[in-house]
Write a structure and sequence with these properties.
The longest helix is centred in the last third of the chain and has 22 residues. Strands 2-1-3-6-4-5 form a six-stranded mixed beta sheet, sandwiched between helices. Helix 11 packs across helix 12. By secondary structure, it is α/β, with parallel strands linked by helices. The protein contains twelve helices and six strands.
């Protein structure tokens, strides 16, 4: 699998201002560099040493008033919580006290994006896995035929399709009070805001890519998902973490066949099994 093979098979509405916006964004990068480094502090040398036990933060995307993507019968927040709980059980059963699992949410509650990252940071997690379900705008032609899993690391979105996914996931901050002040002026709908994302996570990029590749391979082999590839995009929840971090899109809920799979006990267990197999590979490689 090529990490930077970001060809997209699904259609999104092309913005004629995209290239211009990104050119303008590059002009403000020096100011945003300072902001990024202040907002996501580096770990000290002592903090980067391997901690015991190994800690993994599992983030069930959305929750509470934030339903995430919706299909005809299923919704994202319910699917992600169920898969996250199943993954937690698999890790605890296999590793016991050798691995500490931290859940950003274990019930149907709303947690801000920075709140999720803060839970992982406070736990000094060694790996952050954010679980999501994909979709596209209802006006997108052929949306009911889209399928496939993809795993993202933080970075510049590289394509308009990746930007579209990041904007959708980041728009949850608009459900928070005083989000403009809290996120220091970040606008989830403006491409100028996204130039910051390659700055905060470069130190963890190699390990993030390692796990992302393992997870993507397992979602194909174990969960039987189509391959949408390992990608980069500007996700706030990944950028704000201090450890290797990925965001997993299990499949497209706008596709009725995929929605049925994601809504089934068997399908959710396969997704959890796939992520657990990837975790086992990653854990073994780092210990």
């Amino acid at each position: 699998m090529k990490f930077f093979d970001l060809s997209d098979t699904f259609a999104v509405q092309k913005s004629s201002n995209f290239a211009t916006d990104m050119h303008i964004s590059s002009l403000i990068i020096s100011a945003l560099c300072t902001f990024a480094m202040l907002a996501v502090p580096m770990r000290s040398g002592a903090e980067t040493l391997q901690k015991h036990p190994f800690t993994v933060a599992i983030d069930a995307g959305h929750g509470g008033k934030d339903f995430g993507c919706r299909g005809k019968k299923q919704n994202e927040k319910t699917i992600t919580l169920d898969v996250a709980r199943r993954l937690n059980k698999l890790i605890e059963k296999e590793y016991g006290d050798s691995v500490n699992v931290v859940m950003t949410r274990n019930s149907d509650v709303f947690i801000s994006l920075y709140g999720r990252a803060d839970i992982a940071n406070q736990a000094e997690a060694d790996l952050f896995i954010s679980i999501h379900v994909n979709s596209v705008d209802k006006r997108t032609k052929g949306r009911t035929k889209l399928s496939g899993a993809s795993v993202y690391t933080v970075g510049l979105h590289k394509s308009e399709a990746n930007l579209s996914v990041a904007m959708r996931e980041n728009s949850v901050i608009e459900l928070e009070e005083d989000f403009t002040e809290k996120y220091q002026g970040f606008d989830p709908n403006s491409s100028e805001s996204y130039i910051i994302f390659e700055l905060g996570q470069n130190r963890n990029m190699a390990r993030s890519i390692d796990f992302a590749s393992m997870a993507q391979n397992e979602l194909i082999a174990t969960a039987g998902r189509a391959d949408k590839g390992v990608r980069q995009a500007g996700f706030l929840v990944l950028w704000a973490t201090k450890m290797p971090a990925v965001l997993v899109e299990l499949d497209f809920i706008c596709n009725p066949v995929c929605e049925t799979f994601l809504g089934s006990d068997k399908g959710r267990q396969k997704c959890a099994d796939a992520l657990f197999n990837a975790f086992r590979q990653y854990y073994k490689s780092k210990n």
